[in-house]
Design a protein that fits this description.
There is one protein chain. The protein is α+β, with helices and mostly antiparallel strands and about 525 residues long. The chain contains 14 helices and eleven strands. A six-stranded mixed β-barrel has the order 3-4-9-6-8-7. Strands 2-10-1-11 form a four-stranded antiparallel sheet, covered by helices on one side. It folds into four domains: about 1-50 and about 285-420, no CATH class; about 55-80 and about 210-280, no CATH class; about 90-205, no CATH class; about 430-525, no CATH class. The chain is elongated.
Amino acid sequence: MKPLLKDFLRGLAKHKGKFISVFFIILVGTAVFSGLRSSEGDMLLSADSYYDRTHLMDLRVVGTLGITQQDIDDLNALDVVDIAEGVHSLDVLCSGEDKKAVKLMSLSNDVNIPTLTSGRLPQTSDECVLECFLQDKGNYKLGDTIAFVDGDGSSETLNTQLSQTQFTVVGFCNLPQYMDLNRGTGNVGSGEIDGFVLVPDSVFTVAAFTEARILLSDAIPLDCFSQEYDVLCQQATQQIEVLAQTACQRRYDEILAQFGGFLPPFVQLEVPEWYIVGRETVVSCVNFENDAQRIGNLGKLLPIIFFLVAALVSLTCMTRLVEEERGQIGILKALGCQNSTVLLRYLIYALIPTLTGSLVGVLAGEKIFPLAIMKTYALLYEGLDTFLLPYNWTEGLIAVFAGVLCTGLAAVFASYSLAHAKPERGINILKVKFWRVFRKNASLSLKYGGSLSMENIVATFLQNMSGAVKTAKNHKVNKTKKPCRNTVFLLKNLVVKSRVHKLQKLYANSGKFRKTTACTSPATLQLK
């Protein structure tokens, strides 16, 4: 076993180029496989962590006649609800030449928590926080004063809904519901919202809230992209729908009471409705999930191509290696090694670079590829600033198994095909001997000054062949039947015995051989 080990290590050093080739092709294949297939899960995990950290709303309730404080209290009383918070919002235009359309929203500290990028949160009613998108698009900076007007360019309507319309910019932030560049639509300007502005809730003078944002009790421990989370949201929605029937009728009675129980002829009032929606209506959440699924679909196809290339490279390297060590394989088999031993030798040779390349590829690929992909998508999703990159051991083991399968099959195929290959059919021994003797005698004839005639060449050939036959007759094979080194030579000469005598007789009877005075070489002697 020790000599075989030394020979194996010597083979590794001799064929280190093939070793490195297999190592790197398997490294790339496993890195792409595990990295791409882990990217989808890492993207969704990073987004879920960001949503939990900023308390992104699980459900949103919008009423056709608004949401009252009593409705908020009833929602908080439900067991499935952790926090229910009323929010004011209003679509306005920025005063100035550009007239940017923004959504003015009340600041919240419990649901949809803003992430500051610079400055601070508002402390007084005349301060506001702008989103980072407006900082670049609107050329705003800290300390600037910003004023708002309604859709027709005046402040008369806003004065009935806001305590003031002019604010000082004290900070810039990102909101989790606006993680991408899409800000939705509004009812002012061109109909497209350019950004959002956060102000204290005391700025709004309207009693009814625009909507209610809800955090569910058991939602944070769950993956928001899982089926369990969807089931939890469905159960909460059913409970809120039961509550909505009572709340809508109460809201209708309150408005009716404001008119003294009788509606004027020009007023049409219907029982309000509640619309309960989840994160599927948050555009940035849906877009990010779709992008993650696209990466996952890419990870199902592209790594197959890399593994096919790895299999071909491994097969080529192992085939060349086995072909180059054909003689070594013959020596091993002559020493008594079985085909399984030879096969195991090259299988181990293939597994060493495969296992090392697979491990390095998995460890590096599951960090490099997801990070590169998420940093690229961070250009579109500015709010996502933290990336979680855990190791996905399931995908890593699949990648290692695929790499071992590729090179293992290549090594087995190359070794098996050589071990069971039949030798090529050789040429006739007599033809080889004849050509060697013919060439030798032709050179001798010229060396001794003889003429290069067919008679001289054939005469010398017959003399040499006749001497070989006589030598074969004088030698006897050892009675112990042990092979000797001259056995093969004797058998070859005996085979051509009959043909030599036939040639001697044929040319002797023809009378074409005669002694010449111009040639003194042995080839000029007349054959008797």
